[in-house]
């Protein structure tokens, strides 16, 4: 099994830990550039920044020609701080909070509406920006129930039965509908894809009369990667594009004008670009079970605890000697939580992993952690947020400092 997808290795990870401590996130921007190139067929690549919103990374992605999606007021601020023009930002949500609405009005940021009330609130606020409409086609898909974003049990999007009424109301209120968007879950397959394409074509046909300025089909994201390094899950992107391109051509011919395809990747661009480097702080037996306890917990990487997600794990022996012996190990973190385990499956089932025999002080590396890694970190158990470090052209650069205790407590008020 390939140890690293990134261009750095054990030596560079150990150097980064020596400079910035453990745990830490280490990104390879070269991988992000490669993944952007993979999607070059599409008219627009709109990065779903919730996957990893560090402004250093956002700025470099902007320079690579990528547009950006924002799902909160904070993500709008991040995109603007990273140098994105408002016209290259799209706000996607099912509700507005007041901060988001104010920023959209101030900067005239296009909006992807996910609820009927959003349309009315834009109008009441005196905002007229280009609209996308996110469609819930009545079905969904995903590697976990928690990432299924379609169907009756999903909060996302405009229900397909309401689409024509929403489009008609938008026109009555003076809005221009420039985009139809459909994202219904992560980990698409081709059978599922055919359903999505058919639903999109049907939706466009139903609202064509209300959207003469329609120019974009946004196919959402959800492009999978192979977390288990066995090739399963990775899609043939040319085939994926061809299926959508055929649909685009059919719709364009029907409407009598060109439509462009937009893709909205998050995980696909970011996941393989980053590792979480941690230090083994205890090795102990619990009956017949061997545990490696590391200094990172689900406060750092929550995906295994939240989704039962798999991440490849490797060991760096700091004494310079590779261990030939492999043992069955449960990898767990420091939190006062039984669920703080990195080797678990969906439903909280704890499992062992074959790993080299290691000792306290060795490093444990959790791979493919760039998507929904640092961005989902928290201060639970009053743990500090780990630093983010960038590997680019042979150099290691700090792009987010380790949080201090003073910063963690800075917004709290105590009457003395």
Structural class call reads alpha/beta
The pLDDT mean sits at 92
Distance between the termini: 58 Å
Number of strands: 20
How many strands, what sense, and barrel or not for the largest sheet? 9 strands, mixed
What share of residues are in beta strands?
15-25%
Q: Which parts are unreliable, with pLDDT below 50 for 5 consecutive residues or more?
A: 142-148
- Per DSSP, the total helix count is 12
Principal-axes shape call: globular
What does this protein structure show overall?
- The chain is of the alpha/beta class and 416 residues long.
- The chain is built from twelve helices and 20 strands.
- The strands form three sheets. Strands 1, 11, 12, 13, 14, 17, 18, 19 and 20 form a nine-stranded mixed sheet that branches. The protein has an eight-stranded parallel β-barrel with strand order 2-3-4-5-6-8-9-10, surrounded by six helices. A two-stranded antiparallel sheet has the order 15-16.
- Strand 4, helix 5 and strand 5 form a beta-alpha-beta unit.
- Helix 8 packs parallel to helix 9.
- The chain is globular, with a radius of gyration of 23 Å.
- About 2% of the residues have low confidence.
């Amino acid at each position: 099994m390939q140890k690293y997808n990134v261009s750095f290795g054990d030596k560079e990870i150990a150097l980064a830990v020596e400079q910035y401590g453990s745990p830490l996130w280490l990104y390879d921007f070269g991988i992000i550039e490669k993944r952007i190139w993979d999607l070059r067929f599409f008219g627009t690549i709109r990065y779903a920044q919730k996957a990893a919103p560090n402004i250093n990374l956002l700025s470099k992605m902007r320079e690579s020609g990528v547009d950006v999606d924002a799902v909160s007021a904070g993500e709008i601020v991040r995109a603007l701080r990273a140098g994105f023009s408002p016209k290259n930002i799209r706000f996607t949500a099912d509700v507005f909070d007041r901060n988001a609405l104010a920023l959209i009005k101030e900067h005239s940021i296009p909006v992807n509406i996910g609820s009927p009330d959003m349309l009315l609130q834009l109008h009441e606020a005196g905002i007229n920006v280009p609209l996308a409409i996110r469609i819930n086609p009545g079905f969904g898909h995903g590697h976990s129930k928690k990432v299924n974003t379609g169907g009756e049990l999903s909060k996302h999007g405009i229900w397909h039965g309401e689409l024509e009424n929403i489009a008609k109301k938008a026109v009555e209120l003076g809005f221009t509908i420039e985009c139809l968007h459909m994202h219904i879950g992560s980990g698409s397959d081709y059978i599922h894809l055919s359903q999505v394409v058919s639903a999109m074509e049907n939706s466009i046909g139903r609202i064509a009369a209300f959207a003469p300025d329609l120019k974009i089909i946004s196919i959402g994201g959800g492009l999978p990667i192979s977390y288990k390094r066995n090739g399963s899950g990775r899609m043939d992107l040319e085939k994926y594009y061809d299926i959508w391109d055929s649909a685009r051509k059919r719709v364009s011919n029907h409407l009598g004008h060109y439509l462009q395809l937009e893709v909205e990747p998050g995980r696909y661009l970011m996941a393989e670009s980053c590792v979480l480097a941690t230090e083994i702080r205890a090795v102990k037996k619990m009956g017949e079970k061997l545990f490696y306890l590391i200094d990172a917990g689900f406060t750092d990487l929550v995906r295994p605890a939240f989704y039962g997600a798999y991440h490849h794990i490797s060991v760096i022996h700091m004494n310079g000697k590779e261990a030939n012996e492999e043992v069955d190990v449960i990898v767990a973190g420091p939190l006062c939580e039984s669920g703080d385990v990195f080797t678990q499956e969906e439903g909280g089932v704890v499992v062992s992993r074959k790993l080299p025999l290691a000792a306290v002080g060795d490093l444990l590396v959790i791979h493919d952690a760039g998507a929904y890694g640092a961005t989902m970190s928290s201060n639970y158990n009053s743990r500090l947020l780990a630093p983010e470090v960038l590997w680019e052209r042979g150099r290691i650069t700090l792009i987010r400092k380790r949080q201090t205790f003073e910063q963690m407590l800075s917004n709290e008020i105590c009457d003395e």
